[in-house]
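Example complex used in Figure S2.
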Amino acid sequence: MHGVVNWAVHFFMLDEGPLIWLSDFLIICASLGIVGVLTKFRLWKWLWDEWLTTVDHKKIGIMYMIAAILMLFRGGTDGLLMRAQLAWPNMHFLSADHYDQIFTTHGTIMILFMAMPAIIGFFNVAVPLQIGCRDVAFPYLNAISFWLFFFAAMLFNLSFVVGGSPDGGWTSYPPYVENQFDPGPGENYYLVALSISGIGTIATGINFLVTILRMRAPGMTFMRMPMFTWSVFVTSVIILFAFPVLTVALGLLLIDRDFGSHFFTVDGGGAPMQYVNLFWFWGHPEVYIVILPIFGLMSEVISTFSHKRIFGYSAMVVSMVAIAILSFVTWVHHFFTMGAGPGVNSFFGVSTMAIAIPTGVKVFNWIFTMHKGRLEFKSAMLWSLGVIPNFLIGGLTGVMLAVPPADYQYHNSYFLIAHFHYTLIGGTVFGVFSGLYYWWPKMFGVLLNEKLGRWHFWTFMIGFNICFFPQFFLGFMGMTRRMYTYPAGYGWGVVNLISTIGAFLMGVGFIIFVYNVLWSARYGERDTTGDPWDGRTLEWATTSPAPHYNFAIIPTVKGRDAWWLMKQSGEPINGPKDVPFRPIHMPNNSGRPFIMSVFFFLMGAGFVFQWWILAIIGFVGVLICMAQRSFEYDDSHYIPVEEIEKTEAAAGRL
Amino acid sequence: MKPKGRRVGGLIALIGFTVLALTGCDSPEYWPVLSPQGPVARSEYYLIIYSFVLMLLVVLAVFILFFWVIIKYRARPDNADYVPPEIEGNAKLETLWTVIPILVVIALAIPTVAVTYRLVYPPKVEAATAKVVGKSITIDVISEQWKWVFKYPAQNIETVNYVNIPAGVPVNFQLTSSGPMNTFWVPALGGMEFTMPHMDLRLWLEADHPGSYLGRGGQYNGRGFAHMTFTVNALSPTDFENWVKSAQQTAPKLTKQAEAQINQPGLIGKLTFSSTTPQ
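Predicted assembly (933 residues):
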């Protein structure tokens, strides 16, 4: 009995102190709260029918965005804990072990469970509407992608209170993360969760590639596609080439840890550097996966709020394709300091600098899109404009990092930390906020409050600069990343304190955003037009939120900015009056993606704790779900004409 | 809505620098990367400054253009009827801002490649020093969890968590690791290089003058990572010779117990031994 109690105390980390107890308390409260609300308002059936079983791209997109915002909160809390610990020399707020776990979960969550779902959420929210179709090519697969991501994220977050979080950094370099130096389940959580969500991401890449290739409305040629759709197309190709490499790297490392092989160990002929190559062969394209869609949506936002078409459309497309190609030939710049030799380092240095050329083209084209426009500084526009100077600083310090001899000094220093936060926050996070303010009415039928939006923007943007600009100097002062503490006497204290103040200001900005969401849900202006920004692309042609079938009649596209052209010529979205509605073919909802992902979760937990019976149960469950799907013949239905007429009449489009 | 935020940002930066100056953070030893103390760090420093100036020019050009456009073309009550023209693009302008970045990249790439190749070879030796110590000296570096071991194969000396080098002589650091990877970094003398198990990487460093410089690991390798610092003492050539002699005569031999203690994960002080293989 005593042994069991001891095991349980250790397993649930109750011996780790108040931070864990507080987390346990909050998790239990939140879970009870959710269950209580669902039960009190009898929402369980609604939750299951409308959300958990949905294959509708719009709802899946919303669920991705909610998950991304929750994960932004989790990752941001990690960040604030770290900044609190580093605010002054010799702080004892966090122990080394906790700090190591927190920087690992911060990085992993922010990249894979925040940036990725936010990006993919926008794919879902916007792409099918922009290209004038009724859903993605494989709606059922889309639901599987989401639920795999969701349960992988839950598994990863569980590590904080059950068994211990990974502590090898988000890059997870062996041999440190091998059992020899890093025993316990923590690192397995990282490997298993990323593998499971990786399956979902690869499926998303296939899904949107096929959707864009095959399901565009008549007349929408490739060179008439909206820029965001173009960016999703390019990104999907990158996903397809990059993510399988990550799956392989993680798989080999998991086999090392679970079954004692020697791919990346110190002994037994292991080659740790091979992992580093594989990781960054995925890792570098990955940063373009999270920035290219932002470039796409910025093009939409800037064009919309300048009331002008995008300047140099072809150059924008070519530059995106060029960035995608170059993204696969720069990975060695993440380890110039691994002694690859001057020839290799020179090649990868220059190839990295070359990315500045197409990126520069995009920046100038955005500026000239605004030139001679009439710029409305709505919140969505502010965030997109915020990307330009902030991402520019991130990008140009990236060029400085691409100089190998200079990189020997920057490598793993706070200069690097500042650089990539300028690209990932100044680029991706700002862009995500821009997209949220832009597409919020399309997602929910409600506009976010503009005044709160401005407060959110300025607080977060200024806080961000106060937080990360000083970190460039910390790099020159010799501070390296992943240090849980530092002694007095290096002159780092004041600079770190300034940085911490900025971080908390960003936290305030985030709270303003959450308040804005809640306020707007209750009091926000309802979008009755479907086109609140005087938009240019087809998603603004339908109601907000769009009806289940998106378009009663698939529009015919006559040029770029299809909806703008239709508005100019006074053409209604449902075509000339005499075109009759036809029944619309739509996929059925299914609970199986959810259930299959639960089995994936169980299998993952089995691999984390090496509980093989659980792993087998999960695996068999997954197989049964897949087999069942193979014999499912009745997987779609028709929406009758009367129902379409009713919906369209309610939208005032008859 | 006026975009004054960037000016506010500039003001904040100015205040930041003043605070730094007031707290004494402006003295050179606080900025090892920007106050190089040897030829390797110096050539890296020149590239840092050169690339910074190039990038600053780009930043200024884009910022000026950007703020000019967003201020000039902002929506105002008095231009409410203005209908922006539809402009497809401009081949000449677009060529211009493709060619200029290409020129900037070329201007940066040439010195980059030149210095990348040069750093593979040892820096110049001072003739006077070379007579006393030799043209260069080799020191093997092993990163442990969480300490730095330095072996002088020619002198048969081993030190832990500090390393003495002669000033004015290129030092050939042979880097390896007995466990997880780390990087070997002495910012005042030059950039970092990885230490990896079963791999020997070479890093040339040289100090101009006698002095003490802080070194640390740059690649996280577990709980004690933050404490993994070491001191590089650059000594005048004669002082260095004297230290070698006294270490050989007075320091204890490396024992199996001492070696086992070093190999075990943990923190440890500065140690000196007069042999490099345990007996």
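Chain A touches chain B through 99 residues (CB under 8 Å). The first strand of chain A starts at residue 584 and ends at 587.
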